[in-house]
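Question: does this match?
>
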Amino acid sequence: MKINVRIILIGVMASILSINTFACDSSLNEKPGLEESVNFVQHKPPTPMPTLNKVVESVATPVEQLSIELQQSSIEICPCDIKFAITSSKPMDVDDKPEEMHTDLSPTPTTKPLVESPPFYGTLFVSSEILVSTDPTAFYELEKIKDSPRTMYDRRKGWITLTPHLFKARFLDGLTIEVQVNPEFKNAVTAEEVALKYLKVIGQLPTLLRKDVETIWIHEGDELFGGGNNNLLIHHGQGLIYETQGLLEEVFLHEAVHTSLDNDHLSTPGWLKAQQDDGQFISDYAKEFPSSEDISESFPMYFALRYKASRIETHILKLIENTIPNRIEYFDKSIPDLTEMLDSFETPTSESTNTPTPIAKELVVGINIKNYEFPDISIDVGEVVQWKNLDLYTHSATSGIWGGEDDTGDLWDSGKLTFGNVFEFKFTVEGEYPYFCRIHPGMKGVVRVLDSSK
């Protein structure tokens, strides 16, 4: 019997296909004779791999500058940042803004000033209490000297040459100033009265602000004051306005800075750096004219902060500190301590000798606000002593000894002398004449009258 090989092969193949179709059928294990049969798993064709697109054509070298094109713009970034962006699988902290990425590569921002704009229009108007009329003054004497031609500046006319009323002002710290009063003031007496009004205030300034003041010009008119040129410029009409406003002291504080501090500090590297580091100005006026007005606007605020803080409101002091901290530090390092500005003032006296010191016929005796003392003086018979109160407190010049005989005040008694008041007495008889102040009896002195003809 012949076996048809083709038929056998077809049968085998059919059997195989049948087994594959029913692989993993759980019922096969229950059929007799198949206890050790092997389970088969149907094989599914694998998922085709996607085609990979190249992200970077080539690895950049550390020195190559890479550029990514983004919406028609080019952003240059470091190659290491490109690598991080490609390889990092960490989520970015983007504050819900996927188009932004935080980075530590941002430049350090410039420190912003604590105050965004100048806190004051002009520091002259911040307070009228920085200096007040009851503050001590170093001014103690005004001497009339011979008139002669002088060149002066007058805001009404410019530079002028004329022959003013001339005086020499003396201060307890040893400084002297020539006072030039325009002859439009009718006589020397009037000129002296006007000068005294301002010299008392100028004497309240610290020595530091008077050290370079050589002259004072006084004119009529309501033009503004000025400083510089080793001078203080005064227009009397405007001075009366400042006095009414209570700002006369603060005006001189500002102008004297021009005269005595500008040349020493205005262009120094330390000041310019402090100005730059603050990033702000104390006033609009200083900001508008930084090369000429910054020190004269800033120093009065520094003076108020360091020496008159009890007179200034706390929020004003804080504004000053926050606006110009570097300028304050500059002044601390560059300006000497002014605490004892007037503490060392003493009425000038001649050196002690056994021979009486000749005294001029018209002697101005200064009353020291600190010592409350009258000086002992010596004059010649027939000469005149002139007491002029240049103190801020009321005094008297009264003959005799306080608490002594009933003749107290019989020879002379000035009565109450307020600031600027004058009392004169002519001595015609040789002898010693004690005198005292009725208001402050501890103030006492002696006038010794000598007869040089004997």
